[in-house]
Every structure is written in C-alpha cells, then in structure tokens.
Specification:
The complex is a heterodimer of chains A (842) and B (157). Chain A is α/β, with parallel strands linked by helices. In chain A, 63% of the residues lie in helices and 13% in strands. Chain B has 5 helices and 10 strands; from the N terminus they run ααββαββαβββββαβ. Chain B has helices at 2-6, 8-15, 41-46, 70-76, 140-145; strands at 28-31, 36-39, 50-55, 62-69, 83-88, 93-97, 107-112, 115-116, 126-128, 150-156. Chain B is globular, with a radius of gyration of 15 Å. Classes of the chains: A alpha/beta (842), B alpha+beta (157).
C-alpha cells in the first residue's frame, strides 16, 4: 500500500518540478528579452549623433570673424567697392554667433563663464552694428574705422569661445568610447550568459535522461522481482479488475484451486472459486462496492473464506484482499492459503484438549469421591478407636489399639495429603489470613510430636528469640501442616539424634523456620528431587520410614502459595536442615485480645442435657457420633435420613442439629431448608453440616441453605467439642442469640473472632448510649422525628451483630414514634431495655 | 504634364544658357560643366513643396521648413546620379552622392517658420532633413550635409 502512495507522490513531485522548470525558462526568456532590449537602445543611442562637429563650429567662428575683419580692411583700403560682401560677412558671423548662443549642442560650452561672457560680448557687438549694417552704404563707410577697431578688440574673446568649446568637449570622445566599451562588455556578458544557460539546459537534459534510464532499469528490475515473487509464492495469488475478471493468476493458485492459468485468466472470480451457495452474496457485494465504494472485504485483513476447487469441492481458505488504483481503474489483489490441514489440526487439538480437560476433571472428581469414600470408613475406624480407648483395656489390647490407631491415622493423613495435593494442584486452595500466635503454634506442635521423637530416641526442642512478633496473619492450618510434615520427616529420618526447630526473623516481614536434624542426610543430587511428588529416597534397605512421599511436595506447594521459600541444606550422613521462609504480616491485634482468646479456651464448658438431633444415614458414622455426643452428656436423638430428620425437627425442639449432607432421598441441605422455612420449634435451631469434603463453594451452599457451621468428617472429639461450644454456650438466652445468629457467625467468619468481638462490644456500647439517649429524649419531650431517627440508627447497629430481638424492639419504637403514638413509646423502651440486659457477649 | 508647367520657369531659364551677370548671390545657382542655371526664390516656391516640422541641433525649439526635394530638383534638370557639391555663402561646401538622396529628404528649404530666410537666418536656402523623424537623420554625415546659407550647387562628374 505504501508503494502505491509513494508512486503517486512521485508523480506529483515530477509534475511539480516540470512546472518549476517551465516557470524558470519563461523567467529566463523574459530577462533575456529585457537585456536585449536594453542593448538595442544603447546601440541606437550610439548610432545617432546628438551633436554636429562642435569643435569645428566653434573654431569656424574665429575663421569667420577673421574673414569679416579682412573684409573691413579691404573696404577701408578701397572705398569704392561694394559693401555687399561686408554685409554678407557680417550676416554669416551673425548667424554663426546665433547658433553658438542658442543651439542645444553648445549647452555645455555656455556653462563655462568665460565662454558665455565672451559670447555675450560678441553678440552685443553684433547687435550694436546690425542697424548700421542694414542702414545703408554711407552709414557703414562713416563708421568703418570704428568697426575695425571694435572688431579687433573682440579678437581675444572670439578665441576664448573656440578654446572654451574645445575644452568642454575634450572628454566627449572618451566618454563615448567608454560607453561603447561598456556596452560591448554588457553584450558580451549577455551572450556568455545565454551560452551558459544553453549548456546548463543541455546538461540538465542529459542528467534527466540518465535518471530516466536508471529509473526504467529499476522499474524493470522491480517488475522482474515482482514476477518472481508472484511465481514462487506459496499462496495463491489472484488479481482481478473491477468487474471481477481475473487478470493474473499464479502457479500456487493453480495448485490450490485446480484451474489452469489459461482457464482462469479472463473468467470471473465468482464463476471460478466462489462456492455456489455464496455466489449471490458475492455478486451483491461486488455490486454494492461498485455503486457505493463501500469496502467490507477489501483491505480488511485476513479472512476465513470458503472456496471452491475446480472439482467442485469446498475447502477452507485464509484470504487477504487489497486493492490499488491503476491507470485502468481499481485492481484487486487477493492471496489465498489453503488451510484445510490447519483446520483439521486445530480441530484435533481442540478435541484432544477437551478430552484432556475432561480427563482432568474426571480425575479430580474421582479423587474427591475416592477421598470421601475412604474417609467415611476411616471416620468410623478412628471414631470407634477413640471411644474404645476410653474403655477398659488390657495392656495387650492397649498396645494393639495403639498400632491400629497409628495406622489409621497414618492412612487418614495419606488420604488427606492426596486430597490436599489435588486441591493445591487444581488451584482451589484459598489461604486463610487470620491472626495467629506463631510462637505458641510452633511450640505446641513441637510438644505434640515430642512422644514420637522420643520413641526413636531423638530429642526434639523448639528454639526462638524475643524478636518474634506476638501475632501474625496467616493460615493456621496450612502452616501447621508444613511444620508437622517437616518435623515428622525429621523424626522419620533420624534415630537417636537431635532435632531442633528454630524460629527466627529473616527480615522485617519474613519469618524463618528451620528444622535441623542429625539424621541420615540427603545426597546433593537428590536435593531437587525430594520436593517433587511421589518421590521418596527410601529405596534403601532401611525401610524404617514410610510414606507416600507426598509430604514434601505439598509442603513445597504450600510454601510457594504463601509467598515463601523452601530449601534444604544437607549432605549424606551429615544430617539435614530443612528451612522455609514465610512473609508474615504482623497482626494489629493487641496482646490482650489474644490472651483473652487463650483464656476463653481454658474455660471448661458444660453441655450436659443439651438436646441434639443427629441426622446421618450411615450407621457407622451415626454410632460414632452418638458415642461422642454421649461423652459430653448430650441427649441424642437420631434420624436415619433427611425426611425423618425434618419430621423430628417439626415435633420437638432441639438445642443443636447435626445434619449429614450426602444422604439419599433428601440431602442435608434440602432438609435444612425445610426446617428453616418451617414454623416448627427448630426453625432457629443451629444446624451444623457434617461432611467429608467442603470446598468454599460448598460452604456457601450450606450456609445459604440455612446451616450455621460445617463440621468435617471424620469427626474428632475436639472438633465436636468446638461445635458444641459454639452453639451450646451458656443458657438458653445465649443459645437463642447464637442460635438465631447466623449473622454473627458470618461476622466472625468475615472479620475473625477477635474482630467480631470488638465490633460486638462497640455495638453494645452504642446500644447502651442509644437507649439512655432515647430515655432522655422521651423525658424532654423531644420530637417524634428525632426519636424515630435514633432508634432506627441503633436498630441498624444491632442488626449488624445479629441482635435481632434488640433490633425488632428498636424498630417498634421507631414505628410508634412515626405514628406519633407517644403513649406506646415508654413501654416499648422498657421492653427494649430488658432485651438489652439479656444480651450476652459471645 | 503638370510637371512640365511647374518647371516652366526652369525651362525658360534653360533657354538662356548664359547666366545673368547680376545673378543675385541670394539665388540658387546650379553649375554644370557646360551651363549654369539660376533659380530664384519664386522659382523654387513654385515647385512642389515639402514641409518639415522638426527641431534642429542648431536652433532652439521646433521649426517648420518648407522647401523643394533636392532629389526632385536635380532630377528636373536631368541629374540622377553622380556627385554634387553643396556650397554656401561662407564658402562651406560638402559633397553628396546623388544616389543617396531620398525622395522626401533632404529638401532645399526656402521658408523657415513660414518666412523667407535672411542670411542671418541661415538663408537664402538651407538643405535640411527631417531630423526628428528618424535616427538616420541624426548622424554626423547628415549634419554635415545640412548646408545652410546655401546658394550654389555644383554638379561634379
């Protein structure tokens, strides 16, 4: 496209330069004409004489004067002769003088003061004697002597005149010559200039011819190049004119479309390569373009077009069409690439990808289902084991129990690992960011593993310093996982050695964990390998340590997810130092709150007599859960499926409902919805979901179904206790608040327990203030609008932390105030106050 | 035919080959090898007159001259080639090749501004050219040919 524009520009430039040359020529000719004219004038000037022979004229006056004097002498000598000759001479002298006095050619002479004075004297003399001369012979004869005398006196003056004239005209000749010389020089220059111009023109012409010759050779070279390009192009090139008739067609086009060159040239594109079902559209498009010049396809970039081969088959092409303006009109150039193979390949790839994705999905589902299937019996095993552990056992039984417990736990951890890996891999892991006390967490973990370490003769210690921030934000569970994994590995691969867990600050916002052991060590070659999945370096004889090898893989992924680094310093036989850093932000919480949390933990709650409805279809799970609940002295009732669960919930009130999710006939979520929407006694009872797997999406599903919490299977005593604590704390009032308090639970989830507690106490304070203010307002008989406004405001705050009863009471006050029902305000305020006093801090 | 009448006085003069001894020096005397012709002011003014309006380098301002074509005058006495000498009262003389004479220029002027010319006024006759009309009358030769106070033409062979 650029070349076309360039060509146009060139033509314009050429035209412009041509125009300039013409203008220059015309100007030159004009100036030439002026110069010639001037020369002609000069020549003309020289050709004419502006003066007669001036010096001769001036000299002649002397001669004539002398002749006149002679005549006077003659007349004096011979008085008898005629006076006519005298008169003649006088006249001649007179006329000569007249010329000298009046003629323009003596102007310069007359400028000379001496000359003009002399001339004046002579004229005066002549004028004096004119009358006498004309008078008659006697007059003359009488005065001859006087005449002679006066004439003689005039002599020098006459000489002056002639000399003065010579002087005045002395330079004249030179000037004229100079002028002539100048003129010749000018003419010479003119001729030279013309010659020069002529030569220049010839030179320019030669240069232009040379340029044209070069241009032509360049054009032909380009043309040949273009021909070669078109011929060797892999893409089919079709060139058509405005009416769609093919005017050029290359070899590749023959290969792609099947038409020979002879066949193609001259035919219309539509008839050759447009598929039959598109011919009409094609013609319409061409028509529209011819009429309106609208370009839809031309210059629009590569298009996918279906085209037809000679044998009639339709195939996909990738085409580009552009156009350019030639002297004969617009020409279309199109490139066609046969992309049949590409399309096929693409389709295959897409299919393969879809298959792979489906495979991936299927794999994940399999893993999830599998893990669920595996966890369920495990749940049973572990739960039963726990219960069994509390029964009376012989020493041998105790030992066997230990073995079973260990194995079952190990199995569980493997299943969990697999699950975790798959979750991490699928990127569905979301990290918690909650405030946690890293020191306590780590030290507790270390404590927990003490027994295991000692069992292999190892010492296990935890070391740290004062620089640890009290609280950091992090995912408690995941960090625990990492630490446990590494500590367990250290224990596994160390015998009768020492293991040190060191926690330090790597930088202002990075913590470094090091697990140093004096175990077998890891060869340098294996340092990278160990972090990949399913690798254990246990192909040695000492098959003491067992594991799926998934641990370090997960650890690696988790550390990366948290933005940290994981590494190992180790050498075979020299022990290992597994370290990782985590960027942890300090939590802004105060110590007091964390202490409070810890303090809370220390309280021993009592759940005796709490009525719990257990909805679980699996018998094993049911038994286990039942036993556990019995441990807490709860009053348990069982439902074997969702329908039963709903029925039971309709009949009598419970303090807590444990609802399994995956049940036949009616799923736990449906049952919950039914219970929540019913007007039965348990519409507001806390419902806890029991499930083996809960992604965040699942959690949302449960919560929106009306459930309050999720309890992961296999249930442990600890997790069950926590649930009970959450939902069965204190007396029924508190229960009710927490029970109907999905909102508060949500708040806890959003802000974390500590923050939520802070908000709650703030709201409490606000409510207190608000109630006092309302009382004041009512005493002072404030406006209804103000009372309504305030109660509305604090009702909103109450709603935030889920104090719904409080909210309702306050809204009643607002409504009464709006209706101007002042009598009702007092009692309503009292009611709200009593509700407030029964609010318990969660 | 008319020509014959115009040159009648000339013809008369020719009948008398001997020139009058009292030929006025203010008449135009034409001398040939074998004869002398005398033409007076009246003779000339009877002939075809040509009038010039021109300035000259010897006078001030525009002048009119009325006279007879020199060429015609010479032709009327049969002189159409050769050389003539124009002579003036002050003995100034200049030769002219008859062939260079034009039909209209010069003229033998006998009137200047409508008046006959006194000797003081460069009379009796002045051979003048129409100087202003063309550059070719502004050459030194022409100026030299412009004989004033002319009274004699000598036909040389």
């Amino acid at each position: 496209m650029r070349n076309i524009v360039g060509a146009l520009d060139q033509r314009i430039a050429q035209k412009r330069s041509l125009f300039l040359v013409i203008v220059f020529c015309i100007a030159g000719v004009f100036f030439l004409w002026l110069a010639i004219n001037q020369a002609r004038e000069d020549v003309e000037l020289l050709a004419t004489a502006s003066t007669d022979n001036v010096q001769w004229s001036a000299a002649q006056i002397e001669v004539e004067f002398l002749v006149f004097e002679n005549q006077i002498a003659d007349s004096l000598l011979s008085p008898e002769i005629d006076n006519q000759p005298l008169r003649r001479r006088f006249d001649i002298l007179y006329s000569r003088t007249r010329i000298l006095r009046a003629s323009p050619m003596f102007r310069e002479t007359r400028i000379d003061p001496e000359v003009s004075e002399s001339l004046a004297e002579v004229s005066a003399f002549l004028d004096r004697w004119v009358l006498v001369i004309d008078d008659g012979d006697e007059a003359i004869e009488d005065r001859l002597e006087q005449l002679k005398q006066e004439a003689s006196d005039l002599h020098p003056l006459v000489r002056n005149i002639s000399l003065g004239t010579i002087e005045a005209f002395a330079g004249r000749g030179d000037t004229t010559r100079e002028h002539a010389t100048n003129m010749l020089v000018q003419l010479g220059s003119l001729v030279s200039f013309m010659l020069f111009t002529l030569i220049s023109i010839v030179a320019i012409l030669i240069y232009m011819m040379e340029r044209m010759r070069r241009k032509n050779s360049e054009i032909s070279r380009t043309h040949n190049q273009l021909q070669a390009i078109i011929a060797t192009s892999l893409d089919g090139i079709l060139v058509a004119d405005r009416s769609g008739k093919v005017i050029d067609y290359n070899g590749a086009a023959t290969r792609i479309f099947g038409y020979s060159r002879e066949r193609a040239i001259g035919s219309s594109i539509g008839e050759l390569i447009v598929p039959e079902n598109m011919i009409e559209a094609h013609h319409k498009g061409m028509e529209r373009y011819r009429k309106t010049g609208e370009k839809k396809v031309v210059g629009a970039g590569p298009l996918k077009l279906e085209a037809r081969r000679k044998d009639g088959s339709i195939f996909p092409t990738e085409a580009t069409i552009s156009s350019y303006i030639s002297d004969e009109g617009e020409i279309f150039v199109s490139f066609f690439r046969d992309i049949t193979n590409q399309e096929l390949a693409k389709k295959e790839l897409v299919e393969a990808r879809d298959k792979a994705l489906a495979g991936e999905k299927a794999k994940e589902e399999l893993i999830l289902v599998m893990s669920h299937e595996m966890r369920t019996p495990l749940n049973g095993v572990l739960g039963s084991l726990e219960v069994l552990a509390d029964t009376k056992l012989s020493a041998k039984q105790k030992k066997l129990l230990e073995v079973v417990d260990t194995s079952a736990n190990l199995l569980l951890s493997h299943v969990n690992n697999v699950l975790e890996i798959s979750r991490v891999n699928s990127g569905r892991l979301k990290l918690d960011q909650a405030p946690l006390d890293i020191l306590t967490l780590t030290s507790e973990l270390v404590l927990g593993q003490q027994a295991r370490a000692e069992a292999r003769g190892n010492t296990l210690v935890f070391e740290s310093d004062d620089t640890m921030p009290p609280l950091v934000l992090g995912d408690r569970n995941r960090i625990s996982q990492i630490l446990l994994n590494l500590i367990e590995n250290a224990i596994k691969f160390t015998k009768d050695g020492s293991i040190r867990v060191v926690l330090s600050k790597a930088s202002d916002h990075e913590l470094k964990f090091e697990i140093k052991d004096t175990g077998v060590g890891i060869a340098k070659e294996d340092h990278v390998k160990i972090f990949s999945e399913f690798v254990t370096l246990d192909r040695s004889f000492m098959r003491e340590a067992e594991g799926t090898g998934l641990g370090l893989g997960i650890v690696h992924r988790l550390v990366s997810l948290m933005g940290g680094e994981l590494g190992v310093d180790s050498a075979l036989g020299k022990g290992s130092n597994f370290w990782f850093t985590l960027p942890l932000r300090s939590s802004s919480q105060s110590e007091a709150n964390s202490r409070a949390q810890l303090a809370l933990k220390a309280v021993e709650p009592n759940y005796a007599g709490a009525r719990v409805l257990l909805v679980e279809d699996n018998q094993i799970n049911r038994v286990v859960a039942n036993e556990m609940l019995k441990k807490f002295d709860c009053d348990v009732e069982e439902a074997h499926n969702g329908i039963m669960g709903v029925e039971l919930a309709e009949t009598r009130p419970y303090d807590l409902i444990l609802m399994d999710i995956s049940m036949p006939k009616m799923a736990g979520t449906t049952a919950s919805e039914k219970i929540r929407s019913s007007s039965g006694p348990n519409a507001k009872t806390p419902i806890v979901a029991l499930t083996a797997h809960a992604s965040d999406r699942d959690r949302e599903k449960f919560l929106s179904a009306g459930m309050n919490e999720v309890l992961l299977k296999p249930i442990s005593l600890l997790s069950l206790e926590k649930t009970l604590k959450n939902f069965l704390n204190g007396n029924t009032m508190g229960q009710k608040i927490m029970g109907e308090n999905c909102v508060y639970a949500e708040l806890c989830k959003t802000l974390g327990d500590e923050q939520a507690a802070v908000v709650f106490s703030k709201v409490q304070a606000e409510l207190q203030e608000g109630l006092d203010a309302l009382a004041q307002m009512m005493r002072e008989d404030a406006s209804n609008k103000n009372i309504a406004g305030l109660s509305h405001k604090i009702a909103g705050s109450a709603a935030v932390v889920g104090l719904n009863e409080m909210r309702e009471a306050l809204l009643e006050i607002e409504a009464a105030a709006k209706e101007k029902n002042r009598h009702a305000l007092g009692p309503l305020l009292a009611k709200a106050a009593s509700v407030f006093t029964s609010v318990e801090t969660p | 035919m008319l020509r014959f009448f115009q040159f009648f006085p000339l013809a008369l003069a020719l009948l008398f080959p001997i020139s009058f001894a009292a030929a006025d020096e203010l008449d135009l005397t034409i001398e040939r090898s074998d004869e002398t012709i005398v033409l007076t002011f009246d003779d000339l003014s009877a002939m075809d007159a040509i009038k010039y309006e021109t300035s000259t380098i010897w006078t001030e301002g525009d002048q009119t001259f009325t006279g007879v074509s020199l060429k015609a005058l010479l032709a009327s006495i049969g002189v159409e080639d050769g050389t003539i000498s124009l002579t003036a009262l002050d003995d100034y003389a200049f030769d002219i090749d008859v062939a260079t004479l034009e039909d209209d220029a010069p003229i033998v002027a006998y009137l200047n501004n409508g008046e006959p010319m006194s000797v003081r006024g460069w009379g009796p006759f002045w051979v003048v050219f129409p100087y202003d009309s063309d550059g070719r009358y502004q050459t030194e030769i022409v100026y030299s040919q412009s004989v004033w106070q002319m009274n004699r033409i000598v036909i040389l062979d």
